[in-house]
Design brief:
heterodimer, A: about 350 residues, alpha/beta, TIM Barrel, 8-stranded parallel beta sheet, 11 helices, B: about 140 residues, mainly beta, Rieske Iron-sulfur Protein, 6-stranded antiparallel beta sheet, 3-stranded antiparallel beta sheet, 1 helix, elongated
């Protein structure tokens, strides 16, 4: 059975590869200002998490990624989620220019070279209209199967300022992918800036929780009933506890959000999906099965290697402890149901 | 089924409520614009006294921001955790299938028939008045 890998990361060798897709002004700016790279500290290049030691070389280029993900791990399709710091840029025009160039680079240097690859459209959230334009510009390319934003942006995603993006994404059958990472407009924790990388990375799940609460309570799924959201590299096991918490308090303050006419957990199960790596769990693997039961949906998890991030060793992409009866759903059925464009 | 006289209608005006203890149960009786409703006083969630709750309406919305005030005065909100219950059905708004308050039959009877049936009430039932009667 050939899986659909819903989260692989192409490396951007530097701003030099974006040059062909930048106009003359921004090309000049790159040279003049010496903007060699837009790497974000969400994934410091030398952090062990950013690339598994044995995949570090493969993680650098097209040949390495495709041979690992397709030849070695046997994926039928793979979705590229490019982590590059375009979301961090403060100059809105520059952000739009770099983001468009990044999407064009992905289209030409990756998608056009291998029909098995699909990709997310990276969005310049610095400008909502520009996001809609970018969706409209790239949606005709059916290898773009999702739009991508970061878990920690400038404002909670459910707010109405973002709705034009959801309207455009729903229209084109593109799920909203929310990937771990931050545009660093705010500290990653609500307490302030952290000291260590492990704090930053662990706190990503808090951003995901806040985004889920925002999307549900602001009524995004009431307004856009066909919209799907995929939490990517979010971790999995925090979800049941968060659903219980959100649903419990909703019962007491329902009147504050009267458009939410059923428990938030039901809405999350209908509209939200999660990639399966990383899956944080204890050594006792029977606990994993319990957590999957607590999510109360066999449709929820999507197979993903998170290549080349160091989430697991060896070649068993599927996390240990997930019942084998669910493997086919997670590897194929759920991704194909989530990403309608993968079906052709 | 035993009959309990809650009050004379004249003493139980619209917008008020009475907590009745009968058959080892606590039952809250509401007068909503002249209609009477009787609910078990104990909230099925954690046991708050519904008699101490706010009688309010139901805000609904077909889409975000489209607030609509409905069912004015027909929703009792538990004072403990804010769960809302429909006084007509006893059903909770948050989980109407599984979480509901037991309803009791309450109605108005003329004193004439009651006076013959009931002799041991704590207040006199006179032939000419109407009474709110709870059946348990």
């Amino acid at each position: 059975m050939k899986p659909i890998d819903c989260d692989v990361h192409p490396a951007v060798p530097g701003t030099k590869v974006l040059m062909p897709w930048l106009d003359a002004n921004w090309q000049e700016q790159v040279v003049d200002r010496g903007i060699a790279s837009l790497e974000s500290i969400s994934y410091p290049p030398n952090s062990p998490l950013t690339a598994r030691p044995d995949l570090k070389k493969a993680g650098l280029d097209f040949a390495g990624l495709t041979s690992q993900v397709f030849d070695k791990w046997g994926a039928e399709r793979a979705i590229l989620n490019c982590n590059y710091g375009v979301q961090l840029v403060h100059n809105t025009d520059m952000a739009i220019a770099f983001t468009r160039a990044l999407n064009d680079w992905i289209a030409q240097e990756w998608l056009a070279k291998d029909a098995r690859l699909a990709s997310s459209i990276i969005l310049p959230l610095q400008d909502i209209e520009a996001c809609v334009d970018e969706i409209e510009r790239l949606a005709p390319n059916r290898q773009f199967v999702q739009v991508l934003v970061l878990a920690n942006g400038e404002a909670p995603l459910g707010k109405r300022q973002f709705w034009p993006i959801f309207r455009a994404a729903e229209k084109h059958g593109l799920p909203i992918g929310i990937h771990a990472g931050s545009s660093y407009r705010h500290p990653v924790t609500s307490l302030g800036w952290t000291t260590y990388y492990v704090e930053d990375y662990s706190a990503q799940s808090l951003g995901f929780q806040a985004q889920l609460a925002s999307l549900v309570t602001e009524g995004v799924f009431v307004k856009f009933p066909s919209l799907k959201v995929v939490l990517i590299e979010s971790g999995v096991t925090w979800l049941p506890g968060f659903i219980w918490r959100l649903s419990k308090f909703w019962r007491g303050v329902r009147r504050e959000v009267p458009w939410i006419d059923r428990p938030p957990g039901d809405i999350i199960r209908d509209h939200v999906r999660m990639t399966v790596q990383p899956l944080d769990g204890p050594e006792d693997l029977s606990v994993i099965e319990k957590v999957i039961d607590q999510i109360q949906s066999d449709d929820f998890l999507l197979y993903a290697s998170d290549f080349p991030h160091w989430q697991f060793d060896g070649d068993d992409v599927m996390p240990k402890g997930i019942p084998t009866a669910l493997h086919k759903k997670i590897m194929r059925d759920n991704p194909l149901a989530t990403y309608s464009r993968l079906g052709g | 089924m035993a009959k309990h006289v809650v009050a004379a209608v004249a003493d139980f005006p619209p917008g008020t409520r009475r907590l009745v203890e009968a058959e080892e149960r606590k039952i809250t009786v509401f007068n909503v614009r002249g209609e009477f409703f009787a609910l078990n006083d104990r909230c099925p969630h954690e046991g708050g006294s519904l008699c101490a709750g706010k009688l309010t309406g139901l805000v609904i919305a077909k889409e975000p921001g489209a607030y609509e005030w409905t069912r004015d005065g027909e929703i009792i909100r538990c004072p403990w955790h804010g769960w809302e219950f429909d006084v007509r059905t006893g059903r909770s708004q948050c989980d109407p299938q599984k979480m509901r308050v037991r309803l009791y039959d309450v109605h108005v009877e003329h004193g004439g028939e009651l006076a013959e049936e009931l002799v041991a009430e704590t207040f006199p039932v006179t032939v000419e008045n109407d009474y709110v009667v709870l059946e348990i």
